[in-house]
Amino acid sequence: MREIAKKYLEKDLIIHLDMLNALSLKHVNVLYADDDGVLLFDTYAETHFLSCTSKESGIKITKLVDESDCFAIREKFMVDFLVEKFKFNHVQGYLQSGYLSKEKVTVDNIVKIKVLDDNYFNIVRKNYNLGSDDYIHFVLKENNVLGGFVDGELIGFVGTHLEGSMGMLEVFPEFRRFGYGRQLSSAILNKVIDGGQIPYCQVLKDNIPSINLQKQGNFTISEKEVIWLSVH
Fold first, then answer.
1. Structure letter (DSSP) for residue 69
2. SS3 label, residue 93
3. N or C: which end of the chain has fewer CB within 10 A?
4. Is the distance from CB of 66 to CB of 171 less than 8 angstroms?
């Protein structure tokens, strides 16, 4: 079913980058794949990913799911149905941004990049207020977080979330306005390319500075949103 899912998702590459990258992960199961849609389940992130051609198809496909804490969809016509079915109380849309070039970007030699392990949990937790403690421990143990060091001192970090999107970018206040954020972003982009995946991230549509920055970095922005629905 993975090949069928891949063929469907590649028809509209940018809006499906999250699902295509998830498809390459061993902990992601294909629950449904056909001409009318694809449904994936990430067993680590406990998230369902859905794309469908119509509301009728979406309703049929989601009959395969009895309960869910989180869905990522791209069809607005599915929102009300899924909110009612799974009692979701949080809905948020993001534009999807993808780096389609295979060319890596240069990281300034001043910033030394190192994978952060669980020994860095306290400083990551202190500076990153999203996600649970368990989530932070998990991404650290999965080697998903990179730290930037200048003269041996940690100046910030960046990472990939469990479903594959780039994020978690934090530059500590005393080290801001030196361009280190861009260096960290370049480092995580290169790491994703080295892993054989397409670098992507998600951004609020009204975050114009971030969107413009990504366009300057040769990212392609989706026209419609990936919509996240969750119980918390």
1. S
2. strand
3. C
4. no
Its domain, for residue 59, covers: 2-98
- In sequence order, the β-bridge partners of residue 167 are 159
Whether 82 maps to a domain, the answer reads yes
Chain centre distance of CA 75: 18
Name the phi and psi angles at 118, rounded to 5. -65, -15
Q: How confident is the model over 31-89, as pLDDT tens digits?
A: 999 999 999 999 998 999 999 999 999 999 999 999 999 999 999 999 999 999 999 99
Distance CA 182, CA 169 (A): 10
Adjacent-strand bridge partners of 70: 230
Integer angstrom CA distances of residue 54 from 35, 51, 137 = 11, 9, 39
Together in a domain, 46 and 87: yes
Predicted TM-score (pTM) of the model is 0.88
Instruction: Give 72's strand partners.
Output: 49, 228
Query: Which are the contacts of 150, defined by CB distance < 8 A and separation ≥ 6?
Result: 110, 111, 112, 175, 180
Rounded Cα gap, residues 109 and 56, in angstroms: 54
Burial category of 114 from C-beta neighbours within 10 Å (exposed 0-12, middle 13-18, buried 19 and up): middle
* DSSP reduced 3-state for 221: strand
Does residue 93 lie in a domain region?
Answer: yes
